[in-house]
Write a structure and sequence with these properties.
Blueprint: H1 2-7, H2 44-64, H3 66-89, H4 104-129, H5 135-154, H6 158-162, H7 176-188, H8 201-231, H9 233-237, H10 245-255, H11 269-285, H12 287-299, H13 323-333
Helix pairs in contact: 2-3, 2-4, 3-4, 3-7, 4-5, 5-7, 7-8, 8-10, 8-11, 8-12
């Protein structure tokens, strides 16, 4: 019994110590620390996730709602206003047809439209893509930033104010407004769930092709007009008449079919390059959309889609038939006295 007690003897119970015996003892807390109110650290990752989720929700809403289509319409309207202001600015000429420095009535509206166009597009671009640089965003920057700089310099620099369209070298970027208008129209006419105007596929492609042709001609004419006035102003001054934007547009339109005309514009290297550019663009980009439209025209044609009803009444002619007998039978069978329904009977 004593031997078993020795084998299974329990260790003595530890006696509780007092604070006097352990004066330097530190308490150890192994639970969860709860901070006091007002001392919590902000969770930046959670805030970023919530902001990203909100941006995605706004992006989806703008991409699928009627508000997004209205915003597209606003963007297109601003582009049209910008193009109209550019064409209006080219009409500022003197009595001898020479371009004049633009006044405040031309420069201030163009500056305001460029600022509003850039601001609204940048806001929507950030909401939709999170700031990802796209072709449309780069085109918008090149279309709006140079005019803003040019107009700002025209208020302080006499040399810039005296240049063509009071823009200096930045006038070379002005024709990009027509390219941006084409891209904005393509975005407006894109099919969607909340389109402002319901268009068939044929109507949409026809409008896109028409807008592409018109905006391309307008852009090339604007480039030709600004480049000639900026680089070849001396050659234009030697001419007997004014060379305005509409002359450049007429020259580009005629060059597609009849070739260049020296009666409208001087025969220079840049004019020849423009003619080659127009012909190249027409040869490369026009066949594909024109072919798609022709295919859609055939698909909506009632004649190409007609197929006879397999349940149409029919008559079988059997026996040894000669030509005379068949002609007499068909003449009598398809007589109008039998009614119009007999015309749908197959023999």
């Amino acid at each position: 019994m004593d031997r078993a007690a020795k084998l299974f003897r329990l260790p003595p119970r530890a006696q509780p110590s007092t604070e006097a015996e352990l004066p330097n003892t530190a308490a150890v807390y192994t639970g969860t620390c709860i901070p006091e109110p007002g001392t919590e650290r902000p969770d930046h990752r959670q805030t970023w996730r919530e902001l990203l989720l909100l941006t995605q929700q706004l992006s989806f809403y703008l991409d699928h709602s009627r508000l997004g289509r209205i915003w597209d319409l606003l963007d297109t309207a601003l582009s049209i206003v910008q193009v109209s202001l550019f064409v209006w600015s080219t009409t500022a000429v003197g009595s001898h047809g020479q371009p004049l420095p633009l006044g405040l009535g031309h420069r201030v509206p163009y500056l305001l439209v460029a600022v509003v166009l850039l601001a609204q597009f940048a806001a929507r671009h950030i909401l939709l893509t999170g700031g990802y640089m796209s072709w449309f965003m780069a085109l918008t920057i090149l279309d709006t930033i140079p005019p803003i700089i040019a107009v700002s310099l025209s208020f302080t620099s006499a040399h810039t104010h005296a240049s063509y369209l009071s823009a200096g070298v930045f006038v070379l970027f002005y024709p990009l407004c027509f390219v941006r208008l084409q891209r904005s129209l393509a975005q407006l006419l894109a099919p969607g769930q909340s389109s402002l105007v319901r268009l068939t596929e044929f109507q949409r492609k026809l409008l896109l092709l028409s807008s592409d042709i018109v905006t391309t001609l307008l852009a090339v004419a604007a480039a030709l007009h600004t480049w000639l006035h900026h680089f070849s102003a001396h050659e234009l001054e030697q001419g007997d008449k004014e060379f305005n934007y509409f002359d450049a547009l007429f020259f580009c339109s005629v060059s597609i079919t009849a070739g260049p005309s020296e009666d409208i514009i001087p025969d220079l290297l840049i004019t020849r390059l423009v003619v080659m550019l127009i012909i190249t663009l027409a040869a490369v980009f026009l066949p594909a959309p024109v072919g798609e439209i022709l295919t859609l025209m055939r698909s909506v044609s009632h004649f190409d889609n007609y197929s006879a009803d397999p349940r149409t009444n029919h008559v079988l002619m059997c026996g040894h038939l000669d030509y005379t007998a068949v002609c007499e039978f068909l003449t009598e069978f398809y007589n109008q006295d039998h009614g119009l329904r007999i015309m749908h009977t197959s023999v």
